[in-house]
Write a structure and sequence with these properties.
Elements: H1 3-45, H2 48-61, E1 69-74, H3 82-92, E2 98-105, H4 109-121, E3 125-130, H5 138-156, E4 162-165, H6 176-183, E5 189-191, E6 194-196, H7 204-228, E7 238-241, H8 242-250, H9 264-274, E8 279-281, E9 285-286, E10 289-293, E11 298-302, E12 306-307, E13 310-312, H10 318-340, H11 346-356, H12 358-385, H13 399-427, H14 429-463
Parallel strand pairs: 1-2, 1-4, 2-3, 5-8, 6-13
Antiparallel strand pairs: 4-7, 5-7, 9-12, 10-11
Helix pairs in contact: 1-7, 1-12, 1-13, 3-4, 7-13, 7-14, 9-10, 10-14, 12-14, 13-14
Length: 509
């Protein structure tokens, strides 16, 4: 045996050690995931979640007078989407008593111009100009908008029952405000699901958002609520009671959102609970949703029971996806640990661990790919350049190691099955079948995000340089707003959606 082969075998020994370590970490992390899955199916089996969904659906059908709601939309460099977003949702919302507050920056003339165009067409649109050059942070913009909302109330003599939070790329479900109207009062914060628009199967980066949000917002948040009672705000499709806004401001020097936090929506959940305010996550099914026709880029009714949820586009390019996730990791893992530690009951601590483990498990998964690639290349070399020789594995051939790998295969099969189930439930079986291959793409995106988040936060901790907001570029299906504007500010409902589909005739109001 030559020296090179000896060196390769020595190297393989260390790769074997790495592979066993990775398999062990993967198995431990998988037990955590399986626990959440089993917990969810137990809730379904014993009827707890079904009864809750039916109760919410019943309250939605009740004839409740429309209370006034504010919709705040922070907008920095959103000139390409803000008009379409507000025009579309103003036309399609099956709720008349709402008012948009669009937060723009004094140095963003393009977005201000689009907002003024909206204000000229819709009586229920108000522009709020942040008196600072942007971008600052989303929290800073939201705080300015909330101050303007309270001033608007005083000026017109109307108190909003609730204040909904949305982004400039959101397609709001027509019945969203009906849900908020029925629940705000019982709860001080209500979170609805958020899903991606349907995307072509070939768009694997945007496809990972299809899979992950379909699973998290139909399973994980249900379990999280039952275990911990703490519901993280998703930043959109969320509503705060007026009482919550006032109390949050009183307990934070007049600021509702923490301007130093990258994930101000995640952070605010802890402050809501600290004040004893009640929160809930609602997956309320109705007999239709609205999605995008991929061929015509127009809205179409999807005629099957689906939760009332906001739809939006997520990044479709690798760089945009991992930069967005890096921002989430900085806010949730690093800033969240610094601000909130491990506070809360056992359920909260458990889900904090789930939130934060990704900063470690993402690199471990890529190390797993690295170890596998090395083992395959070494086997190829030995078969090619040392044919007939027997080079047994030192560690990987052990029975306990083979059992560990077999267990991980079972865990992987379980994980892929759940991805398929929940993606299929929302997006159909074709996307369900793509959930497996897209999991590999997701692993690489998460790895790049973890590396970027760690690098940025360590630089901040060592040098003291401030963390800089990294905004996501938004897109919106322009044809959603393709119809002519409402005449004389008339607010039309879902039966006037601009599409040639005959499905428009049965949309509920």
């Amino acid at each position: 045996m030559d020296d090179l082969t000896t060196a390769i075998l020595d190297y393989r020994y260390y790769i074997e050690i790495l592979a066993i370590a990775i398999a062990s970490i993967t198995a431990i992390s998988s037990v955590d995931d399986v626990f959440v899955d089993i917990y969810y199916w137990c809730l379904r089996l014993f009827g707890h979640q079904d009864a809750k969904d039916r109760a919410f659906a019943q309250s939605l059908r009740a004839d409740i007078p429309e209370r006034p709601f504010a919709i705040m939309v922070p907008a920095w460099k959103e000139q390409d989407v803000i008009f379409s977003m507000v025009a579309t949702n103003s036309r399609l919302l099956a709720y008349n008593n709402s008012h948009y507050f669009i937060g723009v920056y004094q140095n963003d003339e393009a977005t201000i111009s689009e907002a003024r165009r909206l204000q000229a067409l819709y009586a229920n649109v108000e522009i709020v100009i942040v008196p600072r050059d942007g971008p600052t942070s989303k929290a800073d913009c939201l705080n300015t908008v909330l101050t303007a909302i309270l001033k608007h109330e005083a000026a017109v003599g109307v108190a909003f029952a609730g204040i909904a939070l949305h982004d400039a790329e959101d397609f709001i479900h027509p019945h969203e405000l009906k849900v908020f109207n029925s629940l705000i009062g019982q709860f001080d914060f209500v979170q609805l699901p958020v899903f991606s628009f349907s995307q072509p199967l070939r768009d694997v980066v945007s496809g990972i958002y299809i899979d992950e949000f379909a699973e998290v917002h139909t399973k994980d948040l249900v379990v999280r609520q039952h275990c911990s009672g703490l519901i993280p705000c998703a930043g959109v499709s969320a509503c705060f009671s007026r009482n919550a806004v006032v109390r949050l401001a009183e307990n934070n020097h007049g600021q509702v959102f923490d301007t130093s936090c990258f994930t101000e929506d995640y952070d605010i959940a802890f402050r809501l609970r600290a004040l004893g305010l009640k929160s809930t996550f609602v997956s309320c099914p109705v007999n239709y949703t609205i999605d995008m026709n991929l061929e015509t880029v127009e809205p179409v009714f999807v005629k099957r029971p689906l939760p009332i949820a906001t739809r939006e586009f997520f990044p479709s390019e690798l760089r945009g996806a991992y930069r967005q996730r890096a921002r989430w990791l900085i806010g949730i893992v690093f800033q969240g640990t610094s601000s909130h530690g491990w506070e809360g009951n056992w359920g909260t601590k458990y889900f904090l661990l789930r939130d934060r483990k990704g900063i470690l498990t993402a690199p471990v998964v890529i190390l797993g790919y690295f170890a596998l690639a090395n083992l395959l290349l070494i086997e190829w070399y030995l078969e090619t350049y040392a044919p007939g020789a027997q080079f047994d594995f030192v560690l990987l051939g052990q029975d306990y190691v083979m059992d560990l790998f077999f267990v991980n295969v079972i865990f992987l099969t379980w994980r892929l099955a759940h991805r398929f189930i929940f993606t299929t439930r929302i997006f159909g079986w074709r996307h369900g079948l793509m959930a497996g291959p897209r999991l590999i793409v997701s692993n690489f995106v998460n790895f790049f995000a973890a590396v970027r988040a760690t690098r940025i936060y360590l630089d901040h901790a060592i040098t003291g340089r401030p963390l800089v907001w990294d905004k996501t570029t938004h897109t919106y299906p322009i044809k959603f707003a393709g119809a002519s504007p409402p005449v004389d500010g008339d607010r039309r409902g879902t039966d006037h959606i601009p599409t040639g589909s005959t499905e428009t005739q049965w949309a509920p109001r």
